[in-house]
What we know:
Blueprint (H helix, E strand, L loop, with lengths): L3 E6 L3 H12 L4 E4 L2 H4 L8 E4 L1 H9 L11 E4 L1 E5 L6 E5 H4 L5 E5 H13 L4 E4 L5 E6 L6 H5 L7 E14 L6 E6 L4 E7 L7 E9 H9 L2 H12 L6 E3 L4 E9 L4 E2 L2 E3 L5 E2 L7 H17 L10 H30 L3 H15 L2 H12 L2
Parallel strand pairs: 1-2, 1-9, 2-8, 5-11, 9-17
Antiparallel strand pairs: 3-7, 4-7, 5-6, 10-13, 10-14, 10-15, 11-12, 12-13, 15-18, 16-17
Helix pairs in contact: 1-5, 1-9, 9-10
Amino acid sequence: MQKYEVLVRGSGCVGRSLALALGAQGLRVALLGSAEASLAQREDVRSYALNAASVRLLRELKVWDSLPLDAISPVYDIKVSGDQAGALLEFSAWQQGVAELAFIVDAGALEQQLATALRFSPHVKIVDAPVPADLTALCEGRDSQQRAELGVRFEAHAYGHRAIAARLSSNLPHQGVARQWFRSPDVLALLPIEKPSAGCSYGLVWSLPEQQALDLLAEPDAEFEAAMNAASGGEAGILTLATGRSSWPLARAQAEPVQGPGWVLLGDAAHLVHPLAGQGLNLGLADVAALAAVLATKEAWRSVGDERLLRRFARARMAPNWAMGELTDGLLKVFASEAMPLRELRNKGLNALNSVPPLKRWLTTRALGL
């Protein structure tokens, strides 16, 4: 049986990106998955918010510039509203001195383009069963079976919330504006995207307490739309469902450790954060960039599975992943609380932060990976 240097387990965006990145270095990579199945047409209502660092990586992998035009929507402004009238925090690309704050990307289109790129990567082979390799990279997501078999601690702290995703159409153009409402206890986000109606579509990500989410999922479309329009207050126009709805439970988790002799964890297999900041895939792609950089600069006499080498990756990602987990966890606790004194404080805090441009610039730089 052919020996590979790296076996990538998991054929989502993180796993495919890692296989492409390491294959570009000339490493012999096996990707556990099915190229044919990955290219199958299916409805995927998810939308990814990608920062500048993620876009750079995808561009280096020759994927970004090959995406269909209707799969990408730039975000020029972000409006964050509290649960009281007048509580508003705004971010503008113009104020930050950048062309755009982020890009919203069609999840299905990105996965398909990554799969297409892999077909033309001479150093990557798609395999349907595990093969021997010096390094196994686990990118299997939150429910990784191999992670459990390695004895890695992965305690997921459930938020008791569930995210609902869908695609929406509006009677008004989105104009590249992403909107978010912290409504205690739910968080509603509308992400501008070009499908199904160019210039007038949104990706919905709505985080609600578990039972409230399940009740909404059980509602007919008309009742769901009425609740959604009431929550957004008409600021994004009249919203209608353009697709079905999907949902998943929300939790925070951090694997410990994230590496060992001959193995390493990346993406949701290594860490989970709340989606309110839209940073889940960005963290996973940052893992990919960090591991690729470590392996590209390894000493010639080291194996790619050398544990000391992999510790460099773990150290590089420890602080950023922990900080984002703390940030999203803290924001949820502050904005999900229904206690009146805290509601008053956080709404005043949004307005106060909105009036301090240097702090807004610092937050934007950190979030966007500029």
